[in-house]
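so my prof wants the structure for this chain in the tokens format not the other one, which i didnt know existed until like an hour ago. anyway here's the sequence
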Amino acid sequence: MKTMLRVSNVCKTFNPGTINEKIALNHVNLELEESDFVTVIGGNGAGKSTMLNAVAGVWPIDEGSIFIDETDVTGLPDYKRAYLIGRVFQDPMTGTAADMQIEENLALAARRGMKRGLSWNVKNSDRQMFREKLATLGLGLEDRMQTKVGLLSGGQRQALTLLMATLQKPKILLLDEHTAALDPKTAKLVLDLTKEIVEENHLTTMMVTHNMRDAIHIGNRLIMMDEGKVLLDVRGEEKKNLTVEDLMKKFEAASGEEFANDQALLSK
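here's what i got, hopefully its the right format
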């Protein structure tokens, strides 16, 4: 099986040498194979989002290397590796341009990795494709393509962001607690859409979540982080049979301490 992501011995410390020094990633090693759907869970400050940001190139790492589909992206800033990555953020406002129409946002997403001019005009051929893609969301957005994105609800906007992130099939899809800011009903809708899109397109995906139940029931592999390290890596039949109680026991056995994160425990 092809390796789509390889994180090797990656370290990141924020504010080194100061009273606010924080070791965020501590020699992290991780490989994702093609079509892996990995959920990432852990307490606050465990390194979950920091790892996603390292892969996305939000800031340089201190040590180690990162390869996406055999391309060494270690020293590349985020905009130079963006053509390899689809990304959906926790804040529904982050992944779209609020003052642009739905179809204009999709047009920009469709040109990811291509040379762009000063125009984002939407071609008729693209418009038909956008309409078909939007229809699959089941939200009626295919009839509102000239609507400015800023007028959409959080759930509609997050569903659109998900579609934009996967319009040009990325080498890896990064989902950073992308349902956390939504109400439970809308979060379920977006999560169901996520599973559909990932499975249909065989996308290699890494999803950070605080929700233990979601982490267990979604994807083929679960990673638990603690203090900047990968503490547990559960997959296959072991993951299918996992319960929240099992996961907490495994954490306690591996770390020597109780798992104490209110948000995760409340959402179990």
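also thought this was worth mentioning. The mean pLDDT is 89.
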